[in-house]
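User: Please predict the structure of the protein below. I'd like the answer in structure-token form so I can feed it into my own downstream comparison script.

Assistant: Understood. Taking the following sequence of 322 residues as input:
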Amino acid sequence: MTGAGAKAAAPPDRPRSKAVSQLPNLVTLMALACGLTAVRFAFTDNIKAVLAFMAAAALLDGLDGRLARALDAQSAMGAELDSLCDAIGFGVAPAFITYALALSTDPVERIALVESDPRLATLAWVAPLIYVGAIVLRLARFNTLMNGPDQAHYTKEFFVGVPAPAAAWLALAPVVGLQAFGEGWWSSPLVCSLWLIAVGCLAFSRLPTFTFKTVHLTQRQVPALLFGAVIAMAGLFTFPYLAIFAFMVVYLAHIPFACRSHYWVVRNPEAWPADAKARRQMRRERRQHRRQAQHRRRLSERVRQPFVPRGTDRPARRRPRP
């Protein structure tokens, strides 16, 4: 068909440039470089640079996946590269940073302090090994679940265990606590070692945690979110160590709520395809139905009880003797 009314033929799809398709992998390598650079600044006792590079590594790690989906450049090599870089940037790096900074303000003095006690030296070195091993095992399990059969839709809303970037920041809690509150029991070698082991167990555990990727904000929630972001940024610029420590506490506090939500969703298959708003409505209706059932049960129990005239259950008063 020719003429003015004919539609122009659609241009053929141009092949995507290989350089553009490798952009997510480049971002992943930049996250790895930031994590290793944080280790370098840890041995120069520059805590602010350490936290800044770890924050940049976490930001870039969250960006590479979104960039790959936006460019339609997802590949098996990219997934494996992301896991390997996470194992180093969020496994090895925070373990060495905590090992270098959590026991003393001077890394050289810290190493001498640990080496003075053989048992403490062993525990202080075994704890980072356990943490790194747990992170590697967690990433291997994540790759297995990702390449496994299709799962229910609700599984996209939860991580299995604490993700590697969050575990890295939790592993740095002794360092942040030392900078925020000074020397104390929280900066002792024993507590730091046990904390690293506990964080590694949380990362490798099967405790569900929210991914926050499928959260849909309503128009009314956007101003509250922006106001909270302003408060968070003000806290970071004014009291950076206290703000970071508060974020860690809030993240740990959300785990019981995530477990409760995951347990409810698993027990109710009819809620699997529903979104978060519909699930809240379902919970609200069930709570109301449960209260009404309890109220009817109480009323039925009152009706079943025999009627006793008022005052008959009281003991009779004795007349006073003359």
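That's the full token string. The two ends are 127 Å apart (CA to CA).
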